[in-house]
Amino acid sequence: MAKIVTMGEIMLRLSPEGNKRFVQVDKFDIIWGGGEANVAVSCANYGHDAYFVSKLPTHEIGQAAVNSLRRYGVHTDYIARGGDRVGIYYAETGASMRPSKVLYDRAHSAIAEADPKDFDFDAIMEGAAWFHWSGITPAISDKAAELTKLACQAAKRHGVKVSVDLNFRKKLWTSEKAISIMRPLMEYVDVCIGNEEDAELCLGFKPDADVEGGKTDASGYHKIFEQMAKEFKFEYVISTLRESFSATHNGWKALIYNGKEFYESKRYELNPIIDRVGGGDSFSGGIIHGLLTKATQGEALEFAVAASALKHTINGDYNLVSEAEVESLAGGNASGRVQR
C-alpha cells in the first residue's frame, strides 16, 4: 500500500450525549477529529501508511490527540510538538428538522501558530504517493496558509499527487479571503473535491443546481466541472451531491470528471443519520484509496460514496470501517442484516 500524507488540525470535540442540546447537559463526550486527521484514519483503515502532519502541545491533552491517531494506525512521526493550545469545538447532534450545530474555540492553537521551521517538508514528502489537505487548514491562520503552500510545493518537487477538499468554513474566513488564498494554491492540485457551495465560495464557480430545494441534478455540474478542469488543469474534479431532507435524512451520491468523461455514482438513502460530522472527510479518504487502487474512476467513486454512507452510521469524526465492509456495501449489500 501507499504512503499517504495529510496535514491540518486535529481538535478536541466536546459533544452532548445522543441528541441532547448544549444547554441541557452537565457533561460532554470527548471525541477527537478534524478534516485531514479523519482522512488519515480512513486511509490507515484501508491498509495504507497514513501520516498526519500537524503541531500539538507537549502537555497531556496534546498527547491524548496524538494517541487517538496512533490507536487507529496513523503514523505521527511528523507531528511537531510545542505551542499552547489544542483547538476545541463543540458539536450538538440535531434530529429531524433541528440541524446539528458546531461552535469553535480554536483560535491560537498550536498548528495555527506553527512556523515553517517546525517541519521538513522534503523529508515528509519523500516516497509519498499522495498528499491531501483541505480549505480548513489555510483558513485557520495566515501562518497555516503559508505552511499549506510550502507543503504543496514540496509535494510537487517529489512527484506526489495532491488532492484538496475545498471545505469552506464561514466561521473561519470570508469568501473574498478564501478566494484570494485558495485560487493560487490550485496550481499545485491534481484532484479537486468539493460540493456546490465550496466551489462558489472558495473558487468563485457556481453550478446550476437548486440544492436547498433538494434538487441536485448532476447535469447542472457538468459545465462547472469542465470550466474548473480547464482553468486549473485538474486531473479530476469531484463533488458529493447531498440532498438534505432533514438533519437525520439525506440523499447521498457523487459525481466525478476526469477531463473526458463524467461518472455519477448510485444514490444512497441515509436514514437515520447517526453522525454526519466527518462525512465529507470519509468521502475524501475513500476517493484517495479508490484512485490509488481501482481500475476506473467509476469504481473509485463508488468506493468513496459507499465509505461515506457508512460513516453517517458511526458516532464520532473518524470513519471506522474496513475496506471489506465498504466493498460489501458498494457491491450492493445494503440490507443491514446481522453478519454471523
Protein architecture, described:
By secondary structure, the chain is α/β, with parallel strands linked by helices. The protein is about 35% helix and about 20% strand. It is built from eleven helices and 14 strands. Strand 4, helix 2 and strand 5 form a beta-alpha-beta unit. Helix 9 (about 280-295) runs antiparallel to helix 10. The radius of gyration is 19 Å and the shape is globular.
Give a concise summary.
By secondary structure, this protein is α/β, with parallel strands linked by helices.
What's the helical proportion of residues? 25-40%
Which term fits the overall shape? globular
Number of strands: 14
Mean pLDDT: 93
Order of helices and strands: EEEHEHEEEHEHHEHEHHEEEEHHH
Query: Which stretches are low in confidence, meaning pLDDT under 50 for 5 or more residues running?
Result: none
Radius of gyration (Å): 19 Å
Biggest sheet record:
10 strands, mixed
Structural class, from secondary structure content?
Answer: alpha/beta
Give the amount of beta strand, in percent. Answer: 15-25%
**How far is it from the N-terminal to the C-terminal residue, by CA?**
29 Å
Number of helical segments with 4 or more residues: 11
Descriptors:
340 residues; alpha/beta; ten-stranded mixed β-sheet; four-stranded mixed β-sheet; 11 helices
Helix-strand layout with pairing:
Blueprint: E1 3-7, E2 11-15, E3 29-33, H1 35-45, E4 49-56, H2 60-71, E5 79-81, E6 88-92, E7 101-105, H3 121-125, E8 130-134, H4 136-140, H5 142-157, E9 161-165, H6 175-185, E10 191-193, H7 196-203, H8 219-232, E11 236-246, E12 249-257, E13 262-264, E14 268-270, H9 279-293, H10 297-311, H11 323-330
Parallel strand pairs: 1-4, 1-8, 2-6, 4-5, 8-9, 9-10, 10-11
Antiparallel strand pairs: 2-3, 6-7, 11-12, 12-13, 12-14
Helix pairs in contact: 1-9, 9-10, 10-11
